[in-house]
Prior knowledge:
This protein is an all-beta fold. The protein is built from no helices and 12 strands.
Amino acid sequence: EVRLVESGGGLVQPGGSLTLSCAASGFTFSSSAISWARQAPAKGLEWVTNFHSDGKMYYADSVKGRFSSSRDNAKNTVYLQMNSLKPEDTAVYYCALGSFRADSDAYEYDYWGQGTQVTVSS
């Protein structure tokens, strides 16, 4: 059974930092494409990182230079390091497992974690 569990969310002041973790199980982690997405109150889902058809991971313009995703294959965990946080980064953050679909020439995400709340406020 595929399982993704996010942790590390919380309340942080503007300009602060936070690291989210996504612990994965139930699939071959080392070759997996795991992305981060977020949903702010009353807003749609926004991809924070996303895999494109070239197999590379890209960052949303809104977080480029401030957020960094990394992974530890020994721990089956993906991290999202978030620096210089802004109030507009407030959202529920999700990690998701993607797979490449040849028919759509894109990654599609079938498995999601439960999310972790990040609140940026003074």
